[in-house]
Structure formats: C-alpha cells, structure tokens
Amino acid sequence: MKYSKATNYALHTMVYLAAVSPDKRLGVQQLAERFDVSPTYLSKILTKLVKAGMIASVSGANGGYKLKPSWEKISFMDVIDAIEGSDSLFDCNLNHQSDCVIQQVMESAEEEMENKLKKQKIADIAKKITVDH
Amino acid sequence: MKYSKATNYALHTMVYLAAVSPDKRLGVQQLAERFDVSPTYLSKILTKLVKAGMIASVSGANGGYKLKPSWEKISFMDVIDAIEGSDSLFDCNLNHQSDCVIQQVMESAEEEMENKLKKQKIADIAKKITVDH
DNA sequence: GTTCGCATACTCGGATAGTGGTTGTCCGAGTTGTGTTGG
DNA sequence: CCAACACAACTCGGACAACCACTATCCGAGTATGCGAAC
User: Fold this and answer.
1) What sections of the sequence does the record tag as coiled-coil (chains A, B) (predicted)?
2) Looking at the predicted structure, is the pLDDT value of residue B71 above 70?
3) Does A99 lie at the interface with B, CB-CB under 8 angstroms?
C-alpha cells in the first residue's frame, strides 16, 4: 500500500504555488518541467484540485493555474482527499453479524494520521521552502 | 490507496487464533471456511506470517497453524508489516537538492498511525471477541 | 504384539492467470491574448 | 486610428494503452498420522 505519485505531484504543486506567489498564475508546462512530469498528465491531476475548489484554471494564452482566495485554509488532508478519495484505508469485507472490532481499531489508528494531516496547512509548509519543491 | 484484503485476512486469522485457543492447532481449511476464502490463497497469506515468526505451521495429517509462544507481544503493526511490507506510505521520488519537507510531514503523520497500531496488541482484541471474527 | 508399509490428510511453494488501479500519452475542442490587416 | 480578423499559445477532457500489484487458482512435492497386514 502506497500513496500514489499523483498525490505527491499534487502536494508539491500546491506548496509551490503557495510559496512562489499565491496570486501568480503558472502554466502547466512550467510546473511540469519543474517536477519532471508530462504536462498533460499533471494537467489531469490538477483538474481534480480544480474540481475540489482549491485552485482555479485559466484557459487560453498566458493561461494556467492559480490558488483560489481561500487557499490558506487548505490542509494536506484536503489535497490527499481530492486525489485519493476520502474512503477509509481499511474495509473489512467479511460479513460477521456484529461490527468488526478490527475495523474499529484500524479506523481509529487512521484517524490519528488524518488529524495530523488536517492540522498541517499547505501555507505553513510553503513558508519553509527556499528554492525547491 | 487501501490496505489489501490479505491484511484483513491476516488480522482476522491472528485474532481468531488468539481468541479460540492460543495452543490449538487449526487447519487452513477451517480458517478459510470461516472467512470465506479459498484455502490455498489463505495458506499463501499465512506463509508470510510464518516467515515473520508469528505462527508455526505443522504439515501432515492433523496439521495446521498455531500461534508461537511469544504471541502475546504481537501488535497490529507487526501483522501489517508482515503482509504489506514495512515501507513508508509516501515516497517523494522527485530529486530536489534538500530533504523534502513534504516527505517529512507525511512521514510524521504516518508515525502517528503506526504508534497507535503498535500499541494495539492482538491479544487485547482477542479478549473482546465473542463468536465471530 | 510389534514392526513395516501404505493410504490419507494436510501444508508448502512455484507457476499461472484475471482484474483493477495507477501512470501515462495522444488529440480534438474550446478559450484567450496578440499582432496584423483593411477601412 | 480603430475595428475586425487570423493566428498562436494554452488549458480541458475524453479515449486509449502500458504496466504493476493484488487476488486468486491449480497442482506437484513433501510430510505427518493412523490403520492394517505380515511376521
């Protein structure tokens, strides 16, 4: 089990947008070049972030992606949910009568991680960035 | 991203072995029937637990699987590691100069979950089981 | 009664295959900025 | 000088393909148990 590369690209893009300049519009080509991905693939990932309401896309010449006004509230968890979906990491598909105790344990452990990720805002990390990411 | 079904089967098997009777030997057929899996597939999963030193397998007539003496120390995390491997959930494969801050955030969040899973012993959960699981 | 051998029940592990999700690529369509042309 | 038009740059989104991990099955090999036959 691993987080997908798409999640990685999404997180890096968000942090980069926040670090460089939250108002600046950046073309997918520049972003793709920076992260060494194909532009069309990155575009597909960013579309998910657009649908989740985190960034805005501008078509046409000089178009690109830009953070939306409410960007400072966005957490790591938000981005991950947008890409991976918000399903639980663990599903007990066995049909026992009662609620599955194992399921409960796994979910509560997962919550620990999610709480940490909800606290971590993209904006906080963007401040720490110097050149890269 | 999801935990595999194999992990679910492994956890259920461990809890079941601990609940029924830690010394009792159970055939893979009974176990498979209980969890509604094919015996050969479950056997393949349990082999990983054997190699991790959690259970012992006995060949031949009246053979089966049994918990090893040290079973009470086994945590959820141990079982998950045995099945899924102990790699980090998140790998930043981008080559930036410095250490990736995003990677650090993800790893620390993951640790929160892992700590919880390390505290949860199979034996503790086995006590809560009545009939099923 | 004891021992040997065989059938039986069982796990082990490699080979194999289906399936679904991830990772990409390709391309046509739509959109915006810019420059050019014609009045 | 201004308006209309054409072109270039760019994103959008669907279709499609390669790849890999997960899931699962099959079967031959090895192993322990128990029963029966032979001495």
Assistant:
1) none
2) yes
3) no
Complete domains list, chain A, with CATH: 5-86+122-128 (1.10.10.10)
Given a contact cutoff of 8 angstroms between Cβ atoms, the answer to whether A2 and B91 are in contact is yes
Q: Is A26 helix (H, G, I), strand (E, B) or coil?
A: strand
Residue A129 — pLDDT band, cuts 50, 70, 90? Answer: confident
Are the beta carbons of A32 and A22 closer than 8 angstroms? no
Residues 10-39 of A with CB under 8 A from B: 11-12, 15, 35-36
CA-derived radius of gyration, chain A = 17
- Nearest nucleotide, CA B56 to C1': C11
D33 nearest neighbour residue (CA to C1'): B61
Dihedral pair phi/psi, residue B56, rounded to 5°: -120, 145
CA angle B113, B55, A1 (to 5 degrees): 35
User: Tokens 């805005």, residue?
Assistant: A56
Residue reference for tokens 């830690």: B22
- Under DSSP, is residue B125 helix (H, G, I), strand (E, B) or coil? helix
pTM: 0.91
Across A57-66, b (16+ Cβ under 10 Å) vs e yields eeeeeeebbb
Residues of B in contact with A42 (CB under 8 A): none
Residue given tokens 């595999």 in the structure block: B4
Sorted by sequence, the CB contacts under 8 Å of residue B22 that are 6+ apart come out as B67, B71
CB A64 within 8 A of CB A75: no
Question: Quick one: A17 exposed, middle or buried, by C-beta within 10 A (0-12, 13-18, 19+)?
Answer: buried
Interface of B with A in 66-95 (CB under 8 A): 76, 84, 87, 89-95
